[in-house]
Amino acid sequence: MTVKPPRRGRKLLLAGLSLPLFFGLASLDWRPAADEVPPRIVSAASRTGILLAGAGKAEIRLPADATLAGYRPFGRMARDAGRPVYVRSLLLEVGGLRTAIVSAELMTLPSSLAAGITERLRAEGAGCGIVAATHTHSGPGGYDREALPQAVGVGRYDDEVERAILDAASASLAAARAELAPAELRIGEDLAGLGSNRDRPESPSDDRLTVVRLDRPAGGRIAEVGRYSAHPTLLSRFVGPSGDWPGAFMSRVEEEGGVAILLQGAAGDARAAVGRTPPIDADDPIERFAAGLATRLGDVPLLEVHAPVALGCAEAEVALPAPDLGSMVPWPLGRVVSNAASLVAPTRAPITALRLDDLVLLAVPGEPTFGAALAGESGVSASGLRGRTVSLAGAYVGYAPLPADVDDRVFSSRYAWFGPGLAGRLARGQSAAAEALLARPDPEDLQNDRPDDPRTPGGSPEQPGR
Description:
By secondary structure, the chain is an alpha+beta fold. The chain has helices at 7-26, 111-123, 147-154, 159-178, 244-254, 285-299, 334-341, 370-382, 403-407, 422-438; strands at residues 40-49, 51-59, 86-94, 97-104, 128-133, 181-182, 184-191, 195-197, 208-215, 221-228, 259-264, 270-272, 303-305, 309-319, 348-356, 359-363, 367-368, 386-390, 399-400.
């Protein structure tokens, strides 16, 4: 007589035999091939001449039950009231070429939201521009349509939140267009001494404070753009919505008049070093850091750029590597989750290069570390201009550490959705966009009347810091 094992025992035996088979199959690389191809240039245009500028600012009027982004899966609710958050816009125009810089007080900028803002940007006559998030970790959530970001920390998608952000973008751009008029341009840069490297404390972070100031010829501030790198994680996790230190910084700068815009530099490994700020009568670390950075910004030596001013904008697109989440999860699960992520991961990412005189802003859709940013800027620097990385622009594809950082499993590598291959592809995209922007344009595209422009026959390259 044959004795059969109990039904429950058979199920456990079957499961025990199936698990090794499942993990064996899952450990194989099922990801689609993601071979690198040369970056694709989407558009590029340049002009030189008289500079026009206009700036605008509009509050994001959120629904009362809006979640907060950051820190917790599926978002979180605020326990204490925060501060208003805004979208700020700057329109720039030379010789009929109009570009824009749009900054939203958000943690990230998904491609769907970036596309909506870009559509509104083009409705105001700007064919190309930088659309970026300040990276506040206490801003509104609910603006990302993709399931994975919602689960990771942005919160459940809410079309009212998305509509509020787009309405604010429209209002700020319309205000900027209404103010378009001749402008005086000043540019400068200095080290702020207010950041530290959270991946490798013995190494520098991107401490470069880049400043663009625009004034009316008859007097009066139009806008001031500050580019600096430090994670906005100073606010209590239960207060919001809030712009964290970027919001407080912009508000302080706006006390001098005009609209202030904060762009994140190489934010991947940068931490705000509150202890290095000058002493002020405030216990709030946000106000201390904002006041310290605003003071540093006011001290940066600026040089006036006389007409004709060079203005240009180029858009490129890079193919992304296959998802590689091995640094984000325990070793046995790396291939499994990478395979799963490949089903929903984006395959291409945008890069924007915006030139304003000798400054070329190189906007990428992630969070590069300082080393990765320097690699992307090197091509522009070799041309005699000043390339500076802007993070969190146009989309969001996670952190971009160098391969050595991924090997060492530093903090930034834990959020590198595309592993060690992303930084190089973004850097090559930055170089391609800059090359397209700085290449000699067709005669019908540019009537160059600037004798010292490197594109002019016999002209000499501009020197950094002019």
